[in-house]
Amino acid sequence: MSVDQPSTVVSELESDQPGERTARPHRAYTAAQAFVAQLAACGVESVFGNPGTTEYAILDAIQERDDIDLIVALHEGVAVSAAAGYARASGKVGVVELHASPGLGNGLGMIYNAWTGQTPLLIYVGQNDQASLYLEPSLASDLVAIAKPVTKWAYEIRTSDEVPQIVRRAMKVAQTPPLGPVVISLPMDISEQPCSTPVQAPSALRLAVPGDPAAIQDAVDLLASATSPVIVPGDGVVRSKAQAELSRLARLIRAGTMAETAIEPDEPLTANRLALGGAETNAALAEHDVVVAVGTKVFQQLFPIPGDPVPGAEVIHIGLDPWEMGKNNLSTLLHGDERTVLGQIAEQLERRADKDARRRWTARRQHVEAELAAAAAAALDHDRKTWEARPMTPARMAHEIVAGLPEDVCLVDEAITAQPALYRYYTPKIARWFRLRGGGIGEGLPMAVGVKLARPDSPVVALSGDGSSMYAMTALWTAAHHDLPVVWIILNNATYRILQQNAVRRRPGEQAKLPVLGTSLTGPALDFATIAKGHGVHGVRVEDPALLASAVRDAVASGVPTLLDVAIGIVR
Ligand SMILES: Cc1ncc(C[n+]2csc(CCOP(=O)(O)OP(=O)(O)O)c2C)c(N)n1
Question: Is the full-model pTM beyond 0.90?
């Protein structure tokens, strides 16, 4: 059977627009060519991967086309995290190519992050020949079984003809709430066989599902009579682009909020993130009588306390993830798109608020604003006491870095223990701030590579703890190889500091054994400027805080991938 050049295959598409369902004639292609053509028809332009023998046909199919590129990673965790950064910054699915069982295994930690953090990924894994799997060849195992616990869907392709449909289904599964990763295993013998089914544009996904009117009514009743409501927003707010609606509701009910970029940056009621510990979270929420959990799990923590995570409060849980809604506690369930539902609630509250209610809400808002402003001022005062310390404190570092960042920066944040200090000086911007999701460290450096590919016109800066950075250092080479001028700032405290903090959190009141075994990054010290150079990246060590802002400015202006190694101490 003759095989068309892939460019011919693409030209057979009458339209790349989602929702255009016209069946179109197709020419002969292999399953691998159909796979890649279907990805292209779904709008995929980049595949992040690390190649192996079982992927030859797919690599050829990518190489034959000029509308889709392979971004080469030297470790599978880097490929997955870069794809996750791309997905989050572009709003599209991140596509990954991995090699057989060991390649999938190496990627699993970061696939876990995408799964629990609901980042849409399509991960293709090359499987050994289907015809010889029974012989248990080298590299082969049950890829679906490996992937299943940390993916929305894992599937091994059985016939070449099913390829276009399976790719379209995988893209749909990855992008419908709860968003997440899917794994497609494609045996290499099937990838080389002819595929006789057409590549088609995908169905349009329209997810602005409104809330049930009775449930909206229940939520409005609760909020109208609440004395101390609080909103806990999650990434579902970001996915549905509900920041304006969330801000409107926060202003209306005069609630305190605990937001990330889920809220407009100038909203003065924005408070802190919830803590990792169940006891701290319960204490923070204890003063509230109504908790609005929107687009979030309730709650995902490192040390949750068994039982109801929000005892004593009414919870209104809004979102499109049926598994998460009311999973751990009794709630008023509001299944629907976050943006649409928040808008519905705000509108009804607005309509029914009388003068008296508005007066109470205004007083409450003023009270919460004053409380938050006082806490912020006290923290800044505290920072000033050690302003001249050497090595510089995380707070001084944050101040200087923020002074050097351009207005339109996309910031990737894997700062770990420096995070609280960072957010005293940095205000996250909507769609320009990407924090670690899922708890597996080593995402930050490669995520910045994916963000830069998705946003070529924005400067991209990543902050990473020194410990976290070492899991994915080869992301530097990927950026250099593909000419992506990312700036990475390593927050170098020569330790896994969070593990000291968590030891105390975990055993409050007891004597935690400090320092925790295996947490020092000295002997030898990591020399990041030299490590960067070895990956083809410009590296600079910064010890003097007075030089940090200009070092950041210069790095961004240089137009080449640059790493800054910033020496910091551990004073809070
Ligand atoms: C893949 C993975 N391995 C190990 C851990 C455990 N862990 C969590 S934070 C951390 C150290 C972080 O150190 P660093 O990035 O230097 O930040 P710091 O705590 O010093 O601020 C480790 C090892 C993890 N979360 N994920």
Answer: yes
